[in-house]
Amino acid sequence: MSPSRPPPGDRVYNLSAGPSTLPAEVLMEARDDLWSVMGSGIGVLGHSHRGEVYDGILEQTIRDWREVGGIPEEYECLFIQGGATLQMAMIPMNFLGAGGSIADYFDTGRWARDSIAEARTVGRVHVACSSANDRYARVPEESERVYTPGASYLHYCENNTVFGTHVDRPQAPPGVPIVCDASSSIFSRSLDVRQFDMIYGGAQKNLGPSGCAFVIIKRSFLDRARRDLPSMLRYDIHAQHESRYNTPNTFAVYLMGKVFRWIQSIGGLPGVHALNLAKAKVLYGYLDRSELFRPTVVNRRDRSLVNVTFRTASPETDARFCREAELAGLSGLRGHPENGGMRASMYNAFPLEGAQRLVEFMAAFEASALGRRSTRVTPWVAARPVRRS
Ligand code: PMP
């Protein structure tokens, strides 16, 4: 399998923030398996979640998940419907409770803020740090963070998808469990699972279809979860029933299994990390030199590896850029409404050629906007039919 195959003929480069690009090889295999999976004569969508074929799919998927992520046995690997947003509610419901306990949260962006709002419907929240006053264009430094010793847990969002920032694992006080929203960063770089009590996220960026959350949770943390909740909101029930207490999203589990194997085929997490670094270098490298576009995250340490946010000095130019990029086969660049400008989301399956193509297009756009002569003509552009919307 190739980590950097350009999109075949009728496809465009998909830079959306999620759902987003999935490996071409995986999609091709899934196309066949929709018709008949494992020679069963029944497509993957038609198999019972309690039948032998799905047993095999689930078992293999979990095995590959553990292998790719180096996930030790003392962690449960769960799939739960409702995406990352339901997790934002389940976490405080299970681990915060209505009593005197308190949870620490980092306020570093849109999804971190949503997590705080959800937790506040359940119990007491302490905002350990916030970059809201800087419009989330930076990550508060360790020295700005005020932790609560003995907190029920510390929650943070590793990659702020909307604002394009990355947060390193925080230095929580000893004994405080760390819960990480890794929706847009899961398996995009090397990972030491043992440093976390729980890692969760929506699958739709790096792993598979939307609507399904992946949850990696330490058993000793899970054991603290409340039991007086409705069944579908209880982590212990999902664990006991192997993520099939009710009819699960079997297709999402199947597809994530394929993506885990794809990751293995390109060198595991070190391979993926190297590829993501290469893409990020191409785009940030250009942005740091550009006279038209500027990155919205100035501090290099804070920059996301996979969501690169940038803008020009004028919203009209931004809009024109997005329109023209779309016509040139570079789709999904419009920034999130809360941040404006542009956002290039280059998740694991986005090819290096796509990043190079984007930068070539940006350079040509810049030359034309600044009245300079473009110095490069890309054969790919010349050969490619222009898409009309
Ligand atoms: N957390 C992060 C970091 C996200 O990027 C998103 C979605 N963009 C969410 C949570 C919400 O995920 P979902 O739509 O799966 O509920």
Question: What is this structure's SSE topology?
Answer:
Elements: E1 13-14, H1 24-33, H2 52-69, E2 75-81, H3 83-95, E3 102-107, H4 110-120, E4 124-130, E5 154-157, E6 159-160, E7 165-166, E8 178-181, E9 198-202, E10 212-218, H5 219-222, H6 235-240, H7 250-265, H8 268-289, E11 294-295, E12 307-311, H9 315-327, E13 330-331, E14 342-345, H10 352-369, H11 379-383
Parallel strand pairs: 1-13, 3-4, 3-5, 5-8, 8-9
Antiparallel strand pairs: 2-10, 6-7, 9-10, 11-12, 12-14
Helix pairs in contact: 2-7, 3-4, 7-8, 8-10
The structure holds 4'-deoxy-4'-aminopyridoxal-5'-phosphate (PMP).
4'-deoxy-4'-aminopyridoxal-5'-phosphate (PMP) binds at residues 18, 83-85, 111, 157, 161, 181, 183-184, 202.
Question: What does this entry look like structurally?
Answer:
Helix 7 crosses helix 8. Strands 2-10-9-8-5-3-4 form a seven-stranded mixed sheet, with helices on both faces. It has helices at residues 24-33, 52-69, 83-95, 110-120, 219-222, 235-240, 250-265, 268-289, 315-327, 352-369, 379-383; strands at residues 13-14, 75-81, 102-107, 124-130, 154-157, 159-160, 165-166, 178-181, 198-202, 212-218, 294-295, 307-311, 330-331, 342-345. The model is unreliable at 377-389 (pLDDT under 50). The chain is built from eleven helices and 14 strands. The protein is globular. The longest helix has 22 residues, at 268-289. By secondary structure, the protein is an alpha/beta fold. The structure holds 4'-deoxy-4'-aminopyridoxal-5'-phosphate. 4'-deoxy-4'-aminopyridoxal-5'-phosphate is lined by residues 18, 83-85, 111, 157, 161, 181, 183-184, 202.
